[in-house]
Amino acid sequence: GRSLVRGRRPSPRPKPGVAAAPPMSFVSWSAGLQRVVDALADGLDVATNAPVESVTAAEPGAVHRYHLVVGGPTPRTLDVDGIVLATPGDVAARLLRHLAPAAASPLTQTDRASVATIVLAYPRRVVDALPAFRGTGVLVPSSVGSLLKAATFLTTKWPQLDHPEWYFARLSAGRAGDARLAGLDDDELLARVRRDLRTFIGLDVAPRHVHVQRWPDAMPQLTVGHPDRMTTARAALPAGLTITGSSYDGVGIASCLTAAARAADTLLDQLAELDRAIPSTRPDRTAAQGDTPA
Ligand SMILES: Cc1cc2nc3c(=O)[nH]c(=O)nc-3n(C[C@H](O)[C@H](O)[C@H](O)COP(=O)(O)OP(=O)(O)OC[C@H]3O[C@@H](n4cnc5c(N)ncnc54)[C@H](O)[C@@H]3O)c2cc1C
Asked: What residues are in contact with ligand 1 under a 6 Å CB criterion?
């Protein structure tokens, strides 16, 4: 709807005799991606800063099937009927270690890359004439060896960031097999990516504002054999527990949303099946749920 915006993405110049491809563009939300998180959380009971520390199966005959120990500033325990484990794979592996070791083991085999983004704001009148900023960004292949992996010229790319006073750019650093990020503090990181930016596009202006955001271990590296490992893991999960997220079904928000819907459907089917198998021992679930979080 109105809250969606399309980013600018210059189409390549058509080659003579070749039909031009339709112009492509990126899509986001005019108020930022936080809008998606807010919409997903709307109407749910969400506890933040509340890491699950353990998941155990309840005693046979117990009202609920699983027992969760939740840590953080307000530790508590929860008894629940079903679980969608949407944590990173290494966390899921730890939580499933005793409950489902054959499911946990394949989940430990996915490497993860740490990345950082650095958002910079330049006084617009100082950088506006820079030819590179007519494009929407640069991508740097790993063969170049630079710390800078990509630069997105936000003000050119997104209409909502076309600000009269400021020009915004976002730099990305860190990729699979490159451990340099962890050894740099924010100032060193900034100095290195600014140097790369000078080399690649000739920008030698000091930014007026900087925000460094680190994403440790955020990018699962789905290598050859990954789908088979996930099939093995899922086959070993107990009924009433599913896994979903970028560690399992593909990095990228579209993949995560599709996989999450599938995981929820699977869980509901399993719960219905379990209820059919043992109808008499289970009280009405809706009445018994208490403070079960969404
Ligand atoms: C810098 C960056 C840029 C990206 N850009 C794009 C993009 O432009 N387009 C795109 O499609 N994708 C992009 N991605 C990828 C996309 O953001 C991710 O793949 C996606 O958000 C992963 O979602 P997820 O729910 O699987 O994992 P996460 O969002 O990592 O969620 C996992 C959650 O589990 C929680 N958790 C961890 N341990 C516990 C515990 N013990 N108990 C309870 N909770 C726990 C964490 O706090 C976290 O909230 C980007 C990723 C990064 C890092």
From this structure: 51-52, 86-88, 91, 115, 117, 215, 218-219, 245-246, 251-254, 256
pLDDT, tens digit (0-9, with 9 covering 90-100), for 240-290 = 999 999 999 999 999 999 999 999 999 999 999 988 887 645 555 544 444
CATH of the domain at 141: 3.90.660.20
Cα of 221 from ligand 1 centre, angstroms: 13
Do 133 and 193 fall within a single domain?
Answer: yes
**Hey, which residues does 151 pair with through a beta bridge?**
138, 171
Same domain for 124 and 97: no
- Tell me the pTM: 0.86
Q: Tokens 């993860």 identify what position? A: 112
Beta bridge partners of 80: 66
The amino acid at 104: A
Domain that residue 205 falls in: 111-221
Please check whether residue 88 lies inside any domain of the structure: yes
Q: Which atom belonging to ligand 1 lies closest to the Cα atom of 116?
A: 1
